[in-house]
C-alpha cells in the first residue's frame, strides 16, 4: 500500500501484538518514540494497556503530547486502541491528569450495579451507531475482544461510532471524529473480525483518508 504507519511506543502498549496484526495484512509499522520519528508518517497508532495517569505520564516523558495535539489540529489520521482510546479524551475518573483532549468528553468507570464482572473481559458484539471507515454497514455484526474497567462518554453523539452492551446499558466501544478513530476493544486480538476492521482502516488510508467514510 505504500503507507508509513507510526506505532507510538511510550512503554504502555502491547506493541508486538499490534505489529503482528498489521504484518498479517502486509503492512509494517515504524516505532515512534520521539518527535523526530514522526517524519514521513502517514498515520499513527496509539495503543495502550494499564491506567490513565501512568500512561499520560509516560506519554509526556516522550515529548510527544504537543505533537499528537498538533497532528489532530492538522486533521491527520490516528487510530487509538484500548487505553489509547481513553487517552484521546479530556479527562478520566481513573486519574487526575488531563488527557490529550483530541475528542471532547470524559472517561468514567463502568457501573457496578449491572450484574456484570469488572473488568469487562471477553468477547462482545458491536452495535453500529454512526458510520466510520472502521466498520462497514453491510458486514455481519462483528464480535470483538474487550478488557477494560472504564469507558469513554463522548460529549458529541456523532463521535460515537459503535457501542456494546454492559448489563442493561450501552457503553462506548468505538469512536470516530474527523480522521481520528479509536477502539475500546483489542482488534489485534479479535481474530477475523478484528483483522477486517484493521484492513478497512488501511484501505481508507490508501484511498487518501477522505473526510467522508
Task: Walk me through the structure.
- This protein has 213 residues and is of the alpha/beta class.
- The chain has one domain (5-206): Rossmann fold.
- The protein has five helices and 13 strands.
- The chain has helices spanning 15-24, 52-62, 65-73, 83-87, 191-206, and strands at residues 5-8, 29-32, 43-46, 78-81, 91-92, 105-109, 120-125, 127-128, 143-148, 150-154, 160-166, 169-177, 180-183.
- The strands form three sheets. The protein has an eight-stranded mixed beta sheet.
Q: How many beta-strand elements?
A: 13
The H/E string reads EHEEHHEHEEEEEEEEEH
Give the class from helix and strand content and strand pairing. alpha/beta
Oligomer: single chain
Question: What is the CATH topology assignment?
Answer: Rossmann fold
The tally of structural domains comes to: 1
Average pLDDT for all residues: 95
The percent range for strand residues is: 25-35%
Helix percent reads 10-25%
Give the CATH class: Alpha Beta
Low-confidence sequence ranges: none
Number of helices: 5
Notable characteristics:
213 residues; Rossmann fold; 8-stranded mixed sheet; 5 helices; 13 strands
